[in-house]
Amino acid sequence: MDIDYYEILEVSKDCNGAELKKSYRKLAMQYHPDRNQGDSEAEEMFKQVNEAYQVLSDDNKRATYDRYGKDGLNGGGGFSGGGNMDDIMDMFNSMFGGRSSGGFGGFGGFEQSAKRSSSKYPLDFEIRYTLEFQEAVFGCDKEIEVTYKDACVACDGTGAEGGKLKKCTTCNGRGQVVMKQGFMSFAQTCPTCHGEGEVAEKKCSSCNGKAYTEKKEKVTIQIPAGIDSGNRLRVKGHGNSSKDGNRGDLYVTFAVKEDNHFIRNGNDIYIEVPIFFTQAILGGKVNIPSLNGELELELKKGTEDKKQFVFAGEGVADVHSGRKGRLVAQVEIKYPTKLSDEQKELLVKLQNSFGVKGEPHKTSFASCFDRVKGWFE
After folding, report:
1. I need a surface site. Which of 131, 226, 291, 343 has the fewest CB within 10 A?
2. How many domains does the chain have?
3. CATH code (residue 71)
């Protein structure tokens, strides 16, 4: 049994056009594939909502449906590409910006699509740049060389010899083609003209039809303190250049090298502090390096291995707020690997002075040794 179109759109049978459109917009947003990826039920509801609106938004089809139901629609109400189809496309342009989307290939306008960018290539572009550890922590100015696209003068940025273009026969100059699947229709960028609506009669010999030439320039960028790997900086007006002279933006994504001693985790800095075992036993003060010089670390007697000491405000400045993170110093106890005869004798004397003789662990485990022996008798 088919679900009633009015029920699908959650409107009454005497609703007016404004009420119908309002409900359709709400439901189309709710069930759009971009917002429900992998949800087959939402996908089916999206199809039903569009089918119902395509019929009920057309006065003639609505009258036929009201009198005869779906059987009277001669083909079940698939998109016909008429005025109400344009209405649907306009609506999706306003809701989703006329962009391409996943799932259903996106909805774009028809004549609206002809009002496209005058450039045949993106005006913004991105590069990756590697910084030294200290450059990222403290910030710096860097002069970098970039290669950007500039509209070909010979063809006026069209990619066509002498700037001569002709209407694309694939899309008839609209920049988009409509593909149909069942009762659904999809507006997609024309594969021949790539949305331009026009194609070159002959490729420009100067740029080989690319519509641009490449130029190099040096740009000085101010890198704020606290920048980290993966952060992106926008450099306004240093992107690609269009044929009317407008420049897009350059985006720089950073990678930060590691340091030999400091380890960075967000805005916190970690450093491993090697301590000789006698220092750990006796305690005392040691000086450790920090991002801004030296800090004094006070060891308690009997400091354990991997013990951490935290210094607030001694880390990296947050790139947005400027608030500094922590410096975390972690103790690593070092033991001698080679001993002279004299050192061995001294250590034995030290051990004996604590009343520890021979193999003290045997005293601790005496009962356990006896119990284990009994397992094999």
Report:
1. 343
2. 5
3. 1.10.287.110
Mean pLDDT of 215-223: 95
Q: Give the alpha-carbon dihedral of 231, 234, 240, 244, to 10 degrees.
A: 160
What's the whole-model pTM score?
0.58
Q: Are residues 145 and 79 in the same domain?
A: no
Give Cα 40 distance to the centre of its chain: 26
What is the H or E stretch that residue 26 is in? helix 17-31
Q: Which residue is listed with tokens 């910084």?
A: 131
Euclidean distance between CA atoms 191 and 194, whole angstroms:
5
Cα end-to-end distance, the chain, whole Å:
82
Claim to verify: residue 103 and residue 36 sit in the same structural domain: yes
Q: What is the domain extent for residue 367?
A: 341-375
Neighbours of 337 (CB within 10 A): 5
Measured distance CA(121)–CA(239) in Å, rounded? 11
Same domain, 231 and 155: yes
The tokens of 312 are what? Answer: 């607030």
Distance CA 208, CA 216 (A): 19
Whether residues 42 and 103 fall in one domain: yes
Do residues 223 and 233 touch, judged by C-beta distance below 8 A?
A: yes
Q: In what order do the strands lie in the sheet with 263-265?
A: 263-265, 268-276, 324-334, 308-317
CB atoms within 10 A of CB 136: 26
Contact 182, 77 (CB under 8 A): no
218 vs 148, 221, 321, CA distance in Å?
11, 10, 30
- The reported pLDDT for the residue numbered 70 is 76
Specify the higher pLDDT residue, 265 or 40.
265
**Residue 221 and residue 123 share a domain:** yes
Give pLDDT tens digits for 140-167: 999 999 999 999 999 988 888 988 889 8
